[in-house]
Protein backbone atom coordinates (compact mmCIF):
# COMPACT_ATOMS: atom_id res chain seq x y z
CA UNK A 1 0.00 0.00 0.00
CA UNK A 2 1.25 3.46 -0.87
CA UNK A 3 2.09 5.96 1.83
CA UNK A 4 -0.08 9.09 2.07
CA UNK A 5 1.59 12.42 1.25
CA UNK A 6 3.55 14.08 4.04
CA UNK A 7 2.22 17.42 5.25
CA UNK A 8 4.75 20.26 5.35
CA UNK A 9 2.56 23.33 5.72
CA UNK A 10 -0.40 25.06 4.17
CA UNK A 11 -1.03 23.40 0.80
CA UNK A 12 2.44 21.78 0.73
CA UNK A 13 2.91 18.05 0.37
CA UNK A 14 5.90 15.81 -0.35
CA UNK A 15 5.14 12.88 -2.62
CA UNK A 16 7.19 9.76 -3.17
CA UNK A 17 9.24 10.11 -6.39
CA UNK A 18 8.60 6.46 -7.33
CA UNK A 19 4.90 7.06 -8.00
CA UNK A 20 3.86 7.11 -11.60
CA UNK A 21 1.02 8.69 -13.53
CA UNK A 22 0.16 12.25 -14.47
CA UNK A 23 -1.61 12.99 -11.16
CA UNK A 24 0.03 10.91 -8.41
CA UNK A 25 -1.37 13.05 -5.57
CA UNK A 26 -4.94 12.63 -6.79
CA UNK A 27 -4.55 8.87 -7.10
CA UNK A 28 -3.27 8.62 -3.52
CA UNK A 29 -6.11 10.66 -2.10
CA UNK A 30 -8.73 8.71 -4.04
CA UNK A 31 -7.24 5.30 -3.17
CA UNK A 32 -6.95 5.83 0.57
CA UNK A 33 -9.77 7.68 2.38
CA UNK A 34 -7.53 8.04 5.47
CA UNK A 35 -5.22 10.28 3.45
CA UNK A 36 -7.87 12.96 2.93
CA UNK A 37 -6.68 16.09 4.63
CA UNK A 38 -8.66 18.88 6.22
CA UNK A 39 -7.97 22.45 5.10
CA UNK A 40 -5.68 24.37 7.43
CA UNK A 41 -6.20 28.12 7.41
CA UNK A 42 -4.93 31.14 9.28
CA UNK A 43 -8.43 32.60 9.49
CA UNK A 44 -11.64 30.56 9.70
CA UNK A 45 -14.05 33.38 8.87
CA UNK A 46 -14.22 32.44 5.18
CA UNK A 47 -14.64 28.74 6.04
CA UNK A 48 -17.37 29.55 8.56
CA UNK A 49 -19.60 31.44 6.10
CA UNK A 50 -19.39 28.84 3.31
CA UNK A 51 -22.53 27.06 4.52
CA UNK A 52 -25.29 27.77 7.02
CA UNK A 53 -24.61 24.44 8.79
CA UNK A 54 -20.95 25.22 9.56
CA UNK A 55 -20.13 25.46 13.27
CA UNK A 56 -16.99 26.70 15.00
CA UNK A 57 -15.79 24.42 17.82
CA UNK A 58 -12.74 24.38 20.06
CA UNK A 59 -11.15 20.99 20.75
CA UNK A 60 -7.83 20.25 22.43
CA UNK A 61 -6.70 23.87 22.13
CA UNK A 62 -7.41 24.10 18.40
CA UNK A 63 -10.26 25.81 16.58
CA UNK A 64 -12.17 23.79 13.99
CA UNK A 65 -15.00 24.46 11.56
CA UNK A 66 -17.22 21.39 11.24
CA UNK A 67 -20.32 20.64 9.22
CA UNK A 68 -22.32 17.55 10.14
CA UNK A 69 -24.54 17.72 7.04
CA UNK A 70 -21.63 18.09 4.59
CA UNK A 71 -18.46 16.66 6.21
CA UNK A 72 -16.28 17.80 3.30
CA UNK A 73 -16.59 21.39 4.54
CA UNK A 74 -14.23 21.22 7.48
CA UNK A 75 -11.18 23.26 8.42
CA UNK A 76 -8.69 23.77 11.23
CA UNK A 77 -7.03 26.98 12.31
CA UNK A 78 -3.27 27.21 12.65
Automatic annotation (TrEMBL):
User: Known InterPro entries for this protein?
Assistant: Ribosomal_bL36, Ribosomal_bL36_sp, Ribosomal_L36_bact
One Gene Ontology BP term is: translation
Q: Which Gene Ontology molecular function entries are recorded, alphabetically? A: structural constituent of ribosome
**UniProt keyword list:** Ribonucleoprotein, Ribosomal protein
Keyword RNA-binding included in the entry's annotation: no
The domain of life for this entry's organism is Bacteria
**Gene Ontology CC entries for this record:** ribonucleoprotein complex; ribosome
- What PANTHER family does this protein map onto? 50S RIBOSOMAL PROTEIN L36 2, LARGE RIBOSOMAL SUBUNIT PROTEIN BL36B
Family to which this protein belongs: Belongs to the bacterial ribosomal protein bL36 family.
NCBIfam families linked = PRK00831.1, rpmJ_bact
Q: What is this protein called?
A: Large ribosomal subunit protein bL36
What would be the name of the gene that encodes this protein?
Answer: rpmJ
Amino acid sequence: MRQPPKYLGESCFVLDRTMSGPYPAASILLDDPKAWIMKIRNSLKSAKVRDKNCRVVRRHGRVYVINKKNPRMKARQG
